[in-house]
Structure formats: structure tokens, C-alpha cells
Amino acid sequence: MTRAHSKTFFLGSRFFPARQRQAVWAVYAACRCGDDIADESAGDHAQAALSDWWERTQRAFQGQPGRDPVDRALAWAVSTYAIPLSAFQELHEGLLMDVRGHTFEDMRDLSLYCRRVAGVVGFMIAPISGYQGGSGTLDHALKLGQAMQLTNILRDVGEDLERGRVYLPASLMARHGVSRQSLERGEVTPEYRALMQELSALAREWYAQGRAGIPMLHGSAKLAVATAARAYEGILDDLARNDFDNFGRRAYVSGPRKLLLLPQVWWELRGAPVP
After folding, report:
1. CATH superfamily of 2-271
2. Could you give phi then psi for residue 217, rounded to 5 degrees?
């Protein structure tokens, strides 16, 4: 599931030792199951399916998973590492924002959503990685997850519109002179580019804040997380190269380009101060 749904996350995960890698995949798969419900269902059916997913997740934490292999894998992962149930609870609340058709009025709405559906994944991965620095390191992990989710949002504006969803804050759109109607027409205007540039700059700021915590991770987790972060940030580069047209083409980072990032990531980690 990890390899099929997130090649970037999968690439980073390959740098974990086997036991940690299996736990990372279990967490990703469990999160993905909830995300797929929010993306592929609607209305009461979606809320019922999401409620079932949340109950299954809680049973996995109680050591009582059903026969589903994802539930069984998650139960093993949470019995092996101190992964907090509260992080999955926040994820559940974020996915409910999707299925209930939450309207994003301002940056506070967007930041909260990014925290709930992706930022808290940092709280899940950090215990698997092992880390020092306490809550400060977790704050960095949160920002890194938020940066990745904001990147997803900027990449997927066109695709989200097809689902009837707009994650761009209404107040920010209004300030830039961008309307829902212009989005639906797929117009890449100077005003729209300015909006994309502002949000891309925010995502890069969050990446910088998140990367500051990577040296606090233990062992090869540093390389695993840094690789995934750099590759994901590369989506912003591709979006800019395409003049911020995210209606007809999905920004991405090719496999060869991801591999070319590895020496840069290794060199940056080598030069990072040891905590």
C-alpha cells in the first residue's frame, strides 16, 4: 500500500531498519485506509465508514484487531512502539472535516486541517524513529507533516475541484482576487500565481522548521525522514516550473530526480550539528 500510494514516502521508508520500516508501513497503511474513505465516499455513507475505521483503529490499539491485515499490522506496531492513539484521533477529526464538507475560511482553518490530516503523522513516526529533544522535536515533526499536506493541496487544486472541494482559504483567495468560478474555469492568472506563490512560500517555511528537528532523530531515521521531506518539497519546485498550472497537470518529482537528491540530503545531514 505504501509503495502504490506514495512513492516518495516509500523511498524515505527504505532507509529505516527492517523492524522500524515495517512499523512505518503499518502506520501509513492505517492512515491511508481512513484517507481513502474521505476521498472516495460522501455523505452518511462516508461518515459511517469513517466511524467503522476509527473503531477498528481503537481495537488495534487495544490489542484486539480483526482479520484485516492492516489492522493486525497496526496492532503489532503500536504494541512495539509508543505510538499515541491521540494522533489517530486527530486524524479522524481531520478526515471528518472532509466528509462533512468543511469550508476553509482563513489560514487558521487551513493550518488546523494540515495539522490533523498530516502533521500528526509526525507524532506517529517519531516514536518509531526514536528521538531526543522531547516536545520540541515533536513540534518540528508536526511542521514537517503540515508542510507535506500543504504541498498536496497546492499540487491537487484541479483534482480536488473535481470532488467539489476547495482547500484554499476564502479570505486569502479574496485578497488575491481569485474566485471559485475562476478556479473552476482553470484560469492561471497573475492573481492566481501570486496566491500559489504565497502558499508555496508558507510551505517552504514549514519545511525549514520541520527539517530543524531531523538531527534529533536516532540513527538512519535522519536519512529516511530527510529524504522524504526533500523529495516532497521538490513538488513545489515542479509546480513553479510549470508556472503554477495545477489544473491540467499534476506536479511531481521523477524517480531519477529523487535519486539525485540523495547525495545532497546526505551531505546536509553530515554537516548538521550533533545535538
Report:
1. Farnesyl Diphosphate Synthase (1.10.600.10)
2. -80, 160
